Amino acid sequence: MEGAKDASSREGHHCGGCHSEENGKFLNPTPMLNELESGPWPSFVSGFKELAERTKKPMLRGVLDQLEYSYNTKMGYWKGGLVTVDGYGAGVITRYSMIKDKIPEAAEFHTMRIQPAPGLHYNTAMMRELCDIWEKYGSGIITLHGQTGDIMLQGIEEKYVQQCFDELNEAGWDLGGAGAGMRTAVSCIGPGRCENACYDNLNLHLKALKHFVGVLHRPEWNYKLKFKFSGCPNDCTNAIMRSDLAVIGTWKDAIQIDRDEVTAWVEKKGMDALVNQVINLCPTRAISLKEGEMHIETRDCVRCMHCLNAMPKALSPGKERGISLLMGGKNTLKVGVNMGSLIIPFMKMESDEDVEAFIEQIETIIEWWEDAGLDHERIGETIERVGLKQFIEGAGIEADINMVSRPRDNPYFKAPY
Amino acid sequence: MSSPERKWKTIESGPHTYEEALHPVVRKNYGKWKYHEIPKPGVLMHVAESGDAIYTVRAGTPRQDTVDMVRLLCDVADKYADGHLRFTVRNNVEFLTPNKENIEPMIQELESLGFPVGGTGMCVSSVSHTQGWLHCDIPATDASGVVKSMMDSLYEEFKDMKMPNKVRLSTSCCSINCGGQADIAIVVKHTRPPRVNHDHLAMVCELPKAVARCPVAAIRPTVVNGKRSLMVDEAKCICCGACFGACPAMEINHPEHSKFAIWVGGKNSNARSKPSTMSIVAHNLPNNPPRWPEVNEVVGKILNAYKEGGRPWERVGEWINRIGWKRFFEETGLTFDDNMIDSYRHARTTFNQSAHVRF
User: Fold this and answer.
1) Which residues have CB under 8 Å from A102's CB, separation 6+?
2) A264 at interface of B, judged by CB pairs closer than 8 A
3) B30-47 pLDDT, tens digit each
4) Chain B environment of A121 (Cβ under 8 Å)
5) A70 chain-B contacts, CB cut-off 8 A
6) Who is most buried in A251, B34, B60, B334, counting CB within 10 A?
7) Listed range (A8-12, A180-184, B122-126) with the worst mean pLDDT
8) Is the peptide bond before B290 cis (omega within 30 degrees of 0)?
9) Which residue, among A8, A167, A184, A193, would best test binding to B if mutated, counting the most B CBs under 10 Å from its CB?
10) Nearest residue in B to A273, CA atom
11) Which ipTM value was assigned to this complex?
12) Which residues are CB-contacts of B87 (< 8 A; sequence separation ≥ 6)?
């Protein structure tokens, strides 16, 4: 293969110590990666190179050399291991290089997962402090954010992990989840800025994750369990697909209509737009015109959000707000993509008691899963294998027609009579 | 690894607290927002019941950032947004300010620093993606590089709002697809069954765990040179790489045996149609660093056809539902083949169980 040949011909650069500082540059040549410095989109390669030239951290030179080597050979060269901090069993993703004989400077390149504030809000003082601690102990590479929602501090040697964690922890940060336990959660911006937030997802996120912090740091379940908290059915955190426990805001009563704003909207966009882009796109045909006025039949509305998205000034969610809980969302591994499905149609989420009742319900669900689930089985897979009926029995949840798109279409069940 | 002189006692605090991170105008109007408008691409205006307005300027980032880059963003936040910033789930950074006059200078400064302002409304937003060769242990490619190349081509679409509806993209470095479901997803696939490292295996693997991990039951216990090991039924193996996670002796990484696939029609929002999963529409595309032009070309074809044919508010999957898959393939110039017929569990749910035909 041409790439591999090319890489091996340049191995001279990677003999440990014989780098190219003589030409005034700290970094070794990385012609493949340099191709990713052109073009208008911000370049991660330029960022890494600038950081390396400023800090002169050998680990950064090593990791750029290894990445360049990967671009040439089309192979990854990291293997896992076990690094953690005192008292925790998760949160540091361990990476040792498989080619440290060629590129010794990146022999260790561990990641510390850090839990951000719900809604990914920062002030610059906390962000700068995080950067300063990270630069002191680690590479200075930081991913905002990882796919599970963590701040990923990428590139630290094992010997600095504990000290780095201690300083971060003193500044109010804690490690994120990994392995077969509770994972870091994600929230949308919620009531912080969005008019459609149907509950205080930032508050629920913080309280639920604090409650489960023990099993986040010391995983002991069948497999991972993820929460995501979306303020409304637009589901900006992708909770339905990316979380085992998708907490999605909703409301029970009628959509609130500001008649004057409806009129203003029609004046601006035209009657065609009202018909073609709002009424005709309602999935349950809940909207009609009555004597020229927009009418929403609440009993037909499924709270899909479309009309609210199209007319944000004229329409708002109802006043009786709360959450729906969907469960079982996950991607490919092991038995294929699973979309979350509705388990609890509505729970109020206003008072501390509501939050406590929610956490108690989740505790019962997890107890069932610990008992019924197999090793490396996500809760959605357990529910599918064992049966939704059996799950709700075990979790003490009453059957509700909203849990299914329709009743069963086959007669294969054991009648209780 | 604990050092005896360690002085700090761990506080298991969980997520960082958020109240101090919220802009004062956000704290004042928390939960009391009335409506929002998008005055121009990259800028949002949210108005509260109190009459207060807060403006958001949104910009793209490379996601694989550095402390230097984050400090630059903090400088912008200190200068224009009272020391507050936040990120979106698509790796965009947001600055909130009640001062309308801060918007234009902030946009100019972000652009001059190389952060494109956009990512709002009916646009192609930035890509949710995975770690790749930089950090993953089973990557067949480098998502960051694919994303950079793709967003260079889609730069104007990120900065504008000319799509029928928002387009969300994802990129993944193996078929486990940690990048997730999206309107258009770029997913690389290993294409050769794992080579079993028999010398290594007994030391690093629990055999039953590796056997159980396989989605198609292609792994069986065996004995090699008197030692317990595993064998792979290569006719059954779909090269997903899942066994590597349980057993690193199932060596899946290979320099030549990987190809890209493109998937379309994933949607998590409940707006209009129910959330939907993606379908494969192109595969066997070369894994061609550093800029993956073949992948870029297919994504471009799909986006052009969608931009041309989609009606207002239709997401990619909804557009296809209206025009039908046959026309989708015609209009994008892609080719349907028998590998695109599902053959796994629940495959029947993807068959056309009707006499509805398009000619």
Assistant:
1) A11, A14, A69
2) no
3) 999 999 999 999 999 999
4) 18, 21-22, 84, 86
5) 133, 142
6) B60
7) A8-12
8) yes
9) A193
10) B312
11) 0.96
12) A120, A122, A144, A145, B61, B93, B94
Kindly state whether B300 is in contact with chain A, defined as any CB-CB distance less than 8 angstroms.
no
Report the predicted TM-score, pTM, of the whole model to 2 decimal places.
0.95
What is the H or E stretch that residue B111 is in? helix B103-112
How would you classify residue B148: left for phi > 0, otherwise alpha for psi between -120 and 50, otherwise beta? alpha
For chain A, say whether B3 makes contact (Cβ under 8 Å): yes
- The upper half-sphere exposure of residue B309, i.e. CA atoms within 13 Å in the direction of its Cβ, equals 21
Question: H-helix or E-strand containing B172?
Answer: strand B169-172
Q: Which of A33, A77, A144 sits opposite B87 (nearest CB)?
A: A144
Query: Looking at the domain B18-113, which fold is it?
Result: Alpha-Beta Plaits (3.30.70)
Partner residue opposite B178 with nearest CB, options A144, A147, A339: A147
Q: Which residue of B has its CA nearest to A53?
A: B68
Residue contact B74–A124, C-beta within 8 A: yes
List, as one string, the DSSP characters of B30-57: TT-EEEEEEEETTEEEEEETTS-EEEEE
Fold observed for domain B124-191+255-350: Sulfite Reductase Hemoprotein; domain 1 (3.30.413)
Q: Does B151 touch chain A (CB under 8 A)?
A: yes
Closest chain B residue to A150, measured at CA:
B15
b/e code B103-112 from CB counts within 10 Å (16+ = b): beebbebbee
Reported confidence tier of residue A16, pLDDT bands at 50, 70, 90: very low
Q: Is domain B197-236 given the CATH code 3.30.70.20 in the classification? A: yes
Q: Where are the domains of chain B?
A: 18-113, 124-191+255-350, 197-236
- The CB-side HSE value for A396 (13 A sphere, CA atoms) comes to 9
pLDDT, tens digit, for every residue of A76-133?
Answer: 999 999 999 999 999 999 999 999 999 999 999 999 999 999 999 999 999 999 999 9
Q: Which tens digit of pLDDT belongs to each residue from A135-185?
A: 999 999 999 999 999 999 999 999 999 999 999 999 999 999 999 999 999
Residue in chain A lying closest to B255 (CA): A74
> Under a CB-based contact definition with an 8 Å cutoff, are residues B31 and A15 in contact?
no
